[in-house]
Amino acid sequence: MLTARNIEILKAIVEEFIQTAEPVGSKTLVDKYGLPYSSATIRNDMAQLENLGYLEKPHTSAGRVPSNKGYQFYCENILEAHENSDIKFAIANIFTNESINIEDAIKESCELIADMTNLVSGVLGPDASHQTLKHLKLFPLDPKTAICVFITSSGHTQNKMFNFQDEVSLSDIQKCMEILNDNLCDTPIAELNHRLKDIRPLLCENVKRHEMLFNAFYAAFVKFASETLYMSGTSNMMYQPEFSDIEKLKEFTKIVNDSKLFRNLLSEKKNDDNAVVTHTESGTDLLWFDDIAVISSDIQYGDNDTAKLMVVGPNRMQYDKVMSLLNYIKRQVDRYRGDKDGKQEKEER
User: What pTM does this model have?
Assistant: First the structure.
């Protein structure tokens, strides 16, 4: 059980380390934070907090740094909400743009968070490994451009823009769609590109511009199967002291740019005894492992799908600001979907 003084000292150490990335000593706590205790008393409490696992002592310094357990306690018991009206106003503007779809609105919000926090922000979409394709729709915009809509067994939809090198006739597009829907329905998402190769001869027999259409769909299938992760701000980690080691930065970049690796990592770490996990009342999950923190919040991504909105970075981050922004985006997504559903109901009536 921590005393009120323990908590006051831990709070100051966490907030100072977040700002400076330097181990915190008793003199800093007295001079900068004006704690009304002697340096000896503070050092005593710091030693207690270290013994309890809330602080760590780097070998090269007399100061202390928060442990992952310390960050967990801080987020669960000390953290105060941080309101930033300027960022929230910018996010609200994204979602009130009637010409933008929900996926793009979320991506733009992630880019904004990454820019404003100097961390990595992104969305981990629904796991498509257990889904199958139910239907394809292709909408020509002009002779060289079309939008393809993918609809999966879970009701998830995703749009892909096709830009053809040469003009494609409407009859070719219609025939191609018939063949694809007849032969690819109920195909697992991960097997779409392989199955497309199998029906290539059928396309050759029935579609004039078959080669161009085949290439367009093959590229789209590969992306559709892999694009369940969108991350913005990966380069921000170059400026974080925790990632000054280039090999560590490369490994981090590799993981956060591969949805399968990242999904597996999160799953493994949640079952790792050395990792720390917590769930807040607002619905935000926090995961700490090594020097990394992952803050995530589930959002409704489709009629039957959820995605994870995330901020990833060093465990030394401004939790109050980040968690407030994630919760705000979640509310904007819910409001956006509610508005869209309401409009659709009115139109159907």
Answer: 0.74
